[in-house]
Q: What sequence folds into this?
């Protein structure tokens, strides 16, 4: 699935990033105009940085 082409995403979806960080989507999406892709806000759910939020291209993450 090409998450970078999705204008919106449901909140509460859980992913494991390529670096092994467990995250959950918040439902916020932002378009990066210079590359014409969408990135989605996620919250770290476990370990160091738990609770921190950042924008992520979910195409490189594994849906759990």
A:
């Amino acid at each position: 699935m090409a998450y970078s082409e999705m204008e919106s995403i449901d909140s509460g979806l859980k992913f494991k990033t390529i670096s092994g960080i467990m995250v959950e989507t918040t439902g916020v999406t932002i378009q990066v105009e210079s590359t014409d892709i969408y990135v989605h806000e996620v919250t770290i759910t476990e370990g160091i940085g738990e609770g921190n939020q950042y924008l992520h291209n979910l195409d490189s993450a594994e849906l759990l």
About this structure: The chain has a mean pLDDT of 95. The longest strand covers residues 22-32. Strands lie at 14-16, 22-32, 37-44, 53-56, 62-63. Residues 12 and 63 are 11 Å apart (CA to CA).
